[in-house]
């Protein structure tokens, strides 16, 4: 891999902030100061179970409804992330948050008590990337010193919202993914909070965000809500392709190119689509939906999905690899399927979107 520090310094000298067709080079690195993850019982039993900060004893989290349980996860994740960052809630200038429920009620009901300026977001399962992207741009533009990003999903609330009531007991096709019960929160700060003159950081940061590639809405013509990976694969391929083109990079310039929740079906489709465009990511691609569950022992079919999927894997696993200097640079690309009950019942296609965030180690 190239000498990332020298490359970054060279690129930042008099470089424009917009790059290529749709990417952004941040004027200053944005530091991901700390994060926290909260998951349900099935996720705690998976391969990454020991890495999560909080594991629920059940999936209700002390609430009376599935929706309230999701709000409780968001509340806990944000409180813990701010505490781990060594900050107070009043230090958070803005909160960027979203979920899968109608009107994003998990976020609005879960975070209202903190009384922080709130940006409600909807990017479906790509919301973790969307929130990180917008928060990084706000801080990079000098409009805030510190911001938080929060997202969540819950298996039961998502089934109720998009598919069938749990009591119905419907069979799931092998292409279906399992919505992750989980929430993650991230605290971002600008360079004024971190010493970046080459010495050790005076305040710990898990990683830094150096570049962004906002995704486009891509409709591949699929209508099957039980094959989310297939519906989102084209959007992931489009974002990764334009990112590599915009920055004139190769897949090998990244230790990992990480998608959010394509699962087994979507992963293969992504690899095939990018090979058609001249890029082979098969050797360094990773999908959060595949990593979070054990496909052999847990009945999750194609893998995990939901806003919480990419978010909790990023917090618990990906940042740990960067923090420990096992990975120097990754491209994080959470993916979202932009459907609703209304669009599905009207027979509309399921378009997708994916947002690319470059995460690098703090050296």
Q: What does this protein structure show overall?
A:
This protein is of the alpha/beta class and 363 residues long. The chain folds into 2 domains: 30-189, Peroxisomal Thiolase, Chain A, domain 1, CATH 3.40.47.40; 207-360, Peroxisomal Thiolase, Chain A, domain 1. Helices cover 33% and strands 22% of the residues. Strand 10, helix 8 (263-276) and strand 11 form a beta-alpha-beta unit. The model has no long low-confidence stretch (mean pLDDT 88).
Short descriptors:
single chain; 363 residues; alpha/beta; Peroxisomal Thiolase, Chain A, domain 1; 2 domains; twelve-stranded mixed sheet; two-stranded parallel ribbon; 11 helices; 16 strands; 33% helix; globular
The oligomeric status of these chains comes to: single chain
Largest sheet: 12 strands, mixed
Mean pLDDT comes to 88
Q: How far apart are the termini?
A: 15 Å
Q: How many separate domains?
A: 2
- Spell out the helices and strands N to C: HEEHEHEHEHEHEEEHEHEHEHEEHEE
Per DSSP E runs of 2 or more residues, the count of β-strands stands at: 16
Q: Quick one: CATH superfamily of the largest domain?
A: Stage V sporulation protein AD
Question: What level of helicity do the residues show?
Answer: 25-40%
Which of globular, elongated, flat, extended, rod-shaped describes the shape?
A: globular
Tell me the name of the CATH class of the largest domain: Alpha Beta
Instruction: Return Rg in Å.
Output: 19 Å
Here the CATH topology of the largest domain equals Peroxisomal Thiolase, Chain A, domain 1
Return residue spans where pLDDT drops below 50 for at least 5 consecutive residues: none
- Which structural class fits the helix and strand makeup? alpha/beta
SS field, number of helical segments:
11
Beta content comes to 15-25%
